[in-house]
Design goal:
The complex is a heterodimer of chains A (about 575) and B (about 650). Among the domains of chain A are: about 190 residues, 2-Layer Sandwich (PX Domain), CATH 3.30.1520; about 210 residues, Arfaptin homology (AH) domain/BAR domain (Substrate Binding Domain Of Dnak, Chain:A, Domain 2, Up-down Bundle). Chain A has 18 helices and four strands. Chain A has a four-stranded mixed sheet. Chain B is mostly helical and about 650 residues long. In chain B, about 80% of the residues lie in helices and about 5% in strands. Chain B has 18 helices and five strands. Chain B has a five-stranded mixed sheet. In chain B, a hairpin with a 2-residue loop joins strand 2 and strand 3. Classes of the chains: A mainly alpha (about 575), B mainly alpha (about 650). At the A-B interface, helix 15, helix 16 and helix 18 of A face helix 16, helix 17 and helix 18 of B. Chain A: One of its GO terms (cellular component) is vacuolar membrane.
């Protein structure tokens, strides 16, 4: 029967397959070269995409090759043609703006070596619904150049998911804690919102949740700016609407010194800009197939992985969407028919059933990271809760009791019943008054910064969890590829024993070997990126620990100094009280 | 027989006062000077040595109790021990107490032999007793505060009562009570709560014009019986520092819950303070009631009280007592009326009529309002806010502790970064140290600030009781006045009636004489038969009327006389009662207004100033400890 099948095959089909093989090999060689390169080259590609005229000589060849690929895609599918042409049309006026600002930029660069950007985020609407709230981002440089951007709160989440999806192994803190949004954590919500609603508390301590959230958003943007890889991402540049070149030695300073609590109304132009950004973000999602807007906000630890990031479209269709092969491949080909597995559940989706391949963590370091992040998250939460409760008890309750006690002592000193001790009570009330004045708002701001630091660390741990979960999913995908490789190898083993019909069998063997080699190369590339992700994760943890140590250390030092000064003043108060008592006696 | 008993009691009191008067002058001054020298030399040494002496004397006391079997041995033991104790510890104040205690026994024997004394001697003894009591009151009024305070402080230093143990004792039939082991000088005795209650009620009747310190409220025995059960175990109560009741020697000898432990501790504290304040009251210490209460020979206090004729003869109500000498209650005092709650309305009506009484009641009303306001200020002001402050500090202590634990755990987990772990551990130590110092502060505030303030509130309540006593006496006086006036009005009415009756008799006699003249005129007109019959009828009517009037006059003459005699007797009695009550009221008002209340106000001012002094001291120590803690943290930081 095999001989009959071989006799039916026509030479023209063989020639076509050979041509297809050539195309695949060309694409594979280019991408294999990319996989060898570091992540900076990927950023360079995105950089060239953003700025066409700024291509350097070293990247010209890549640029040309990219254009060639794009041309081929445009020829095949009219959808892509429309998208790319619109993109180019949109960039033309930006190039004009670039020409205008280039002169200014060069002038500024001559004067200042390191540029310092101050970042400030203010609420642009009421905080009735946090998801629908609007925020105004102000970025200003020292030569009084300020840029104002309006963004919705959901846009921050969009940016978070885009960056997380594009840069595996990088931690981006979420915009704010998920507990506040879904109201799971009653303790935090009660303390945060109770403080605002309770009128008894003094205005210094009566900070608003808008202030906390603005600090968290500023911390997120600051983190992205400080990372040399993340800040060059096209999604981030679109989010910020930045047209100039970002200097490499850029430093971001968060302006959280004063906060009046007044909301800033959005102008009509900002609102229009916001709508345009929404449209643009939808297009970007459709291009990159990331589906960032579809991911629910509450699931911060679940990052969507797009298989198209790992595989070419053909391989993706062949592996995960067998039904769609009708368009590109001939079903009558006996080789392809034999290759398609009988049970389709294995490849139809990423959700695995009972037959899903099991994946176990081999690296002890990554397992340690899993343990570390869960413990650290819990510890930071505990610190946050206890410090909050400590503030409420010491700064609020004690002061309120002493305040009422002071009024009572004044009343007693004025009363005629206790005349001999009236002076003593009056001095005692004065002591309490001086206590309230001195210790009312002294260490409050400092403790508040500590709370925000703890909260930021909690959010970092959540982001780190998402990275680890991302890597787990990638491990599962590698298992799928391994299964595919095993099947291909078995197919080759079946074909190799037959040596009778040399021409037909050689042709089959070569096609099978080519396919096996292609899949094996992709597997190696993916596995290499998997190893790279592991290294990124470990580096990220080390960097976090260093940064955390520095920040906590500085914060604790300031707390220590303030506490010492506070105790000195406290002791001085009571020491001053005693001689007066002797004089009165 | 009752008169003889009163005379004997007066003789006893007189002898006791004489003995105490004799005992004090030759030794008191020298001993005070000696004690002052001891205190100047060293602060700690005088405190330690009396305790050791007490322990030794306790052993001697046990030996005495074991050896005592008959009265003869009881007589012989003091004579045998008097010599060596006198030689070894002549400088201590305890010896005059011992001597006075020993001297009482032969005097009692002497009083038993005095039953055969002559009546004249009895009367003279009674008079001397009265004069001596009044003299003592005058001397108390004359004393200055400067001389009073050192003596009080000296006594406080020399002899203080401690309640060593609180244990459960069963009295059969499934009932149980808490027994408090009291130590005073060299003797220990067990007393239950009802014994303290009985002592206080006796003192209120014996010294109605004196401010008796309060005792804690009564708790149900059933609750105690349920809560205090099981095997016995000792809970050593912690000491709360200086300037307060020292409970470091006290032990709760029972397995109790935390709340019950606090309750018993509170009771021990209040009862200890009660007894110590009684010791500082000179008027009370002149009598032997305190020493009798603390005498281990009197095992059962209730039996002692019932067997004692002095206590059993006291009237039940303090309003029927003689304020100067309650043991010498006269017949007049016994017959005084006791005002009820409705009599306050009468007081309001009476006060509107009389200006002098109105002024008096106004001044005392102002005083009462002042003390009520004072109590309110203490209770709702200082005490309330101190309690709230203590609670807030307690919560803060918990927060410090939790932060310390969290930082310590975090430092342990973050061992990779050595520098950060080290600093976190130092910071956790700082928070833990702050928690410990705050715990000490909370304990001190609770035991040495809040509870003394609570005692001050109760003392103010006792002061109001004194004012109420005076008020009831005033009501009593008003009742007597009212009844006296009503009796006098009745007497006047009777006299007026007598006068009216005499006038009527005169009129009747005149009319009778007139009728006689008419009778003479009738024979002149007897010419006709009609005139004769009409004149006869009229004469008969007059005769009948005259006879009726005469009979009525004879009947009324005897009754008014008897009534007037009775009324005069009652008026005389009421006049005597009025005189007595007015004198008593004057004395009571004078003593309360000029002696007791100023004394109390000085004491309360001293107490409040001491409380605030301790408060500032505790706060200062707390601040200093906190500063040292954070300085140490900074030192470690600089060293790292």
């Amino acid at each position: 029967m095999e001989n009959d099948k071989a006799s039916h095959a026509s030479p023209s089909i063989g020639v076509n397959e050979f041509v297809v093989q050539g195309e695949i090999s060309i694409d594979d060689s280019e991408r294999s070269v990319k996989s060898v390169s570091v992540s900076i080259s990927d950023d360079e590609d995105s950089k060239t995409d953003v700025q066409d005229n700024m291509a350097t000589p070293s990247t010209r060849s890549k640029f040309q090759t990219d254009l060639a690929i794009d041309n081929r895609l445009l020829e095949k599918d009219p959808k892509y043609k429309k998208l790319f042409t619109e993109k180019r049309r949109r960039r033309r006026p930006e190039s004009c703006i670039n020409l205008m600002t280039k002169g200014k930029g060069t002038g500024q660069k001559d004067n200042i070596n390191d540029q310092i950007f101050s970042l400030r985020i203010l609420p642009g609407s009421d905080l009735n619904s946090l998801k629908d709230s609007l925020w105004i981002i102000k970025i200003s440089t020292q030569p009084d150049v300020e840029k104002t951007i309006a963004r919705a709160f959901s846009d921050f989440y969009w940016l978070y998911h885009q960056l997380q999806n594009n840069h595996w192994g990088k931690t981006i803190p979420p915009p704010t804690r998920s507990n506040i949004l879904v109201e799971k954590d009653e303790f935090a919500i009660n303390h945060l919102f109770m403080i605002r609603n309770n009128e008894k508390y003094d205005p210094i301590f009566n900070f608003k949740p808008e202030y906390i959230i603005s600090l968290q958003l500023m911390a997120m943007i600051k983190h992205i700016f400080n990372d040399k890889v993340l800040r060059l991402d096209s999604n981030f540049i679109d989010f910020i609407s930045w047209d100039d070149d970002l200097p490499e030695s850029l430093q971001i300073v968060v302006d959280d010194s004063t906060f009046t609590g007044d909301k800033i109304l959005m102008t009509s132009s900002q609102f229009r800009e916001l709508k345009e950004f929404h449209k643009q973000s939808k297009k970007v999602e459709s291009i990159t197939n990331s589906h960032a807007s579809l991911i629910p906000v509450t699931e911060l630890t679940e990052i969507y992985i797009s298989p198209t990031k790992l595989f070419s479209r053909k391989d993706y269709q062949r592996l995960f969407q067998p039904q769609s092969t009708d368009n590109t491949f001939n079903n009558n080909d006996p080789l392809i028919q034999e290759w398609i597995p009988k049970s389709k559940t294995l490849f139809t989706s990423l959700s695995f059933g009972s037959s899903a391949p099991t994946y176990q963590e081999a690296s002890t370091e990554i397992q340690a990271c899993h343990d570390w992040v869960s413990i650290s998250k819990e510890q930071w939460k505990q610190l946050l809760y206890h410090v909050l409760q400590y503030i409420v008890d010491e700064a609020v309750k004690v002061n309120s009791v002493i305040n009422e006690f002071t009024e009572c002592l004044k009343q007693i000193s004025l009363d005629e019943v206790i005349r001999a001790n009236s002076e003593l009570f009056l001095k005692f009330s004065k002591l309490n008054e001086s206590f309230l004045k001195k210790f009312k708002g002294a260490s409050r701001q400092d403790i508040l910064k500590l709370i925000i630091l703890f909260d930021e660390n909690v959010r970092f741990c959540e982001s780190f969890e998402s990275i680890l979960n991302q890597r787990l999913k990638l491990g599962k995908i590698l298992s799928i590829i391994e299964v595919d490789l095993d099947k291909k190898k078995n197919f080759l083993d079946k074909l190799s024993p037959g040596n009778n019909n040399s021409n037909n069998e050689d042709l089959k063997i070569r096609t099978a070997e080519d396919e096996y080699r292609i899949v094996l190369k992709r597997y190696n590339r993916v596995k290499q990126s998997w190893e790279k992700i592991m290294e990124d994760i470990l580096n990220e943890r080390k960097e976090f620990e260093k940064r955390e140590a520095a920040e906590v250390n500085s914060c604790l030092k300031s707390i220590r100094d303030l506490n010492m000064d506070e105790k000195k003043h406290y002791l001085q108060l009571w020491q001053d009280f005693v001689p007066d008592e002797h004089i009165s006696q | 027989m009752s008169d003889l008993n009163d005379v004997q009691e007066n003789a006893k009191l007189n002898s006791e006062t004489r003995n105490t008067g004799k005992a004090e002058p030759p030794h008191g001054t020298t001993e005070y000077v000696a004690e002052a020298e001891i205190s100047k030399n060293g602060v700690g040494s005088p405190k330690k040595s009396p305790k050791k002496g007490k322990v030794g004397k306790g052993d001697n006391n046990k030996v005495e109790t074991e050896l005592v079997h008959t009265a003869l041995l009881e007589k012989d033991n003091p004579f045998m021990e008097e010599g060596p104790t006198g030689f070894t510890k002549s400088a201590l104040l305890e010896i005059p107490g011992m001597r006075s205690h020993n001297l009482k026994n032969p005097n009692e024997d002497y009083e038993d032999d005095s039953e055969g004394l002559l009546p004249l001697n009895q009367e003279s003894n009674a008079e001397t007793c009265r004069t001596s009591l009044s003299g003592s009151i005058n001397s108390m009024n004359g004393e200055t505060s400067a001389s009073e305070e050192p003596s009080v402080s000296n006594r406080k230093k020399s002899a203080r009562i401690h309640i060593l143990e609180a244990k459960r004792v069963s009295e059969g039939q499934g009932r149980a009570y808490i027994a408090y082991v009291i130590q005073f000088e060299n003797s220990t005795v067990q007393r239950r709560y009802s014994d303290f209650e009985s002592l206080r009620s006796i003192l209120i009747r014996l010294f109605p014009m004196t401010l008796i310190p309060p005792i804690p409220e009564k708790q149900s025995i059933k609750n105690y019986g349920k809560s205090i059960t099981g095997s016995s175990s000792k809970y050593l109560l912690p000491s709360e520092g200086s300037g307060s009741v020292d409970l470091s020697l006290s032990v709760i000898h029972a397995s109790v819950n935390n709340s019950d432990e606090k309750l018993i501790r509170h009771r021990i504290r209040m009862l200890t303070e009660f007894l110590n304040k009684l010791l500082t009251n000179e008027e009370i210490t002149k009598t032997s009631i305190i020493t009798d209460f603390l005498d281990p020979n009197n095992h059962n206090w209730h039996e002692f009280v019932n067997s004692s004729s002095t206590f059993s003869s006291l009237p039940k109500s303090i309003l029927q007592c003689n304020p100067l000498d309650p043991t010498n209650t006269t017949r007049i005092h016994a017959m005084l009326p006791i005002p009820g709650s409705s009599s306050q309305l009468l007081l309001n009506k009476e006060s509107n009529d009389k200006k002098m009484d109105k002024e008096r009641s106004k001044s005392f009303t102002n005083i009462e309002q002042d003390y009520k306001q004072y109590e309110n200020l203490l209770d709702n002001g200082i005490y309330k806010y101190n309690r709230r402050t203590t609670k807030t500090y307690h919560d803060l202590k918990s927060d410090y502790n939790e932060i310390g634990e969290v930082f310590a755990q975090f430092a342990h987990e973050q061992a990779q970064v050595g520098e950060l772990a080290e600093q976190l551990s130092y910071l956790s130590n700082a928070f833990s140290g702050s928690s410990i110092s705050l715990e000490k502060l909370v304990g001190r505030l609770y035991y040495n600030i809040n509870e003394p303030l609570n005692e001050s509130v109760h003392m103010a309540t006792s002061a109001r009781e004194l004012i109420k006593y005076r008020k009831l006496k005033y009501l009593q006086n008003e009742m007597i006045k009212k009844s006296l006036n009503s009796k006098r009005a009745q007497l006047e009415k009777l006299e007026a009636q007598n006068n009216e009756y005499k006038d009527v008799d005169k009129i009747i006699d005149n009319e009778m004489s007139k009728s006689h003249t008419i009778n003479l005129e009738r024979p002149n007109n007897n010419t006709g038969s009609g005139g004769k019959s009409y004149g006869g009828k009229l004469f008969n009517g007059f005769n009948k009327l005259a006879s009726m009037v005469k009979d009525s006059v004879k009947y009324q003459e005897t009754d008014p006389h008897t009534a007037s005699i009775n009324l005069k007797k009652e008026i005389e009695q009421l006049s005597e009662s009025l005189e007595v009550t007015e004198n008593d009221l004057e004395v009571i008002s004078k003593v309360i207004k000029n002696d007791q209340l100023p004394k109390f106000s000085k004491e309360r001012e001293v107490d409040l100033s001491e409380i605030l002094k301790h408060y500032s001291r505790y706060m200062r120590n707390y601040a200093r400890q906190n500063l040292e803690i954070w300085k140490e943290v900074k030192r470690h930081q600089d060293f790292a």
